[in-house]
Design brief:
The chain is mostly helical. It has 2 domains: about 80 residues; about 80 residues. Helix content is about 85%, strand content about 5%. The strands form 2 sheets. A two-stranded antiparallel sheet has the order 1-2. A hairpin with a 2-residue loop joins strand 3 and strand 4. The protein is rod-shaped and about 205 Å long. The chain starts with a helix and ends with a helix.
Length: about 200
């Protein structure tokens, strides 16, 4: 008989534990409203009053307190999560602003060219470069014109110089001839004078 009792006792203990767990699960799975309805409906009536067992009221109070604690924990967890998300959003907003600044600077650099240490837009750079090229071409044209003009003036002056040299040479030849003729005449006169004195 003792043997049967010792084998039956653990079996009964297991059945009791399973039943208690099912009741606890049932209590937890029931909403608070269902539990209130259950307590009120299963309570006894006495005149106009309901008589509720202390164990049921205590169990309901315990469940309510557990639910409140769970809700408070959930609220705290949600608030913590919300704070973390706010911090993350603020951090991401700062990163986005920095990225947008970097992008704007990068686009500005992409659309611009460094000129004399300053970042200039490509259109302004092209305008400046083409203006410089046009000015240089105009200056080159002006210098070519001046060179050709000076070259023609120089050639003309050289031609006049050559003509003047030829004229001077002719004039010199004539002057030499005239001097020679004058010397001859003078010599002839001197000779005549000598002959006439002798």
């Amino acid at each position: 008989m003792k043997l049967k009792l010792t084998t039956l006792l653990p079996f009964l203990f297991c059945v009791f534990m399973i039943h208690a767990q099912e009741e606890a699960q049932e209590t937890l799975t029931n909403s608070l409203e269902d539990q209130f309805v259950d307590v009120v409906d299963n309570s006894n009536n006495y005149q106009d009053y309901k008589v509720i067992k202390k164990t049921k009221i205590n169990k309901l109070r315990e469940n309510i307190m557990d639910s409140i604690a769970a809700l408070e924990t959930e609220i705290q967890t949600s608030e913590t999560s919300l704070d973390q998300q706010k911090n993350k959003i603020a951090s991401l907003t700062q990163e986005l602003a920095k990225t947008q600044e970097d992008l704007a600077l990068s686009r500005k650099k992409e659309n611009g060219i460094e000129l004399f240490g300053m970042l200039t837009e490509k259109s302004t750079y092209n305008t400046i470069m083409w203006s410089i090229i046009l000015i240089l071409l105009l200056a080159l044209g002006f210098f070519i014109y001046k060179y050709k003009n000076s070259n023609s003036v120089t050639k003309e002056a050289q031609l006049k110089l050559a003509e003047t040299e030829i004229e001077f040479e002719e004039h010199r030849q004539k002057a030499i001839e005239q001097q020679q003729q004058l010397r001859r005449k003078l010599q002839d006169e001197i000779n005549k004078n000598r002959k006439s004195k002798s």
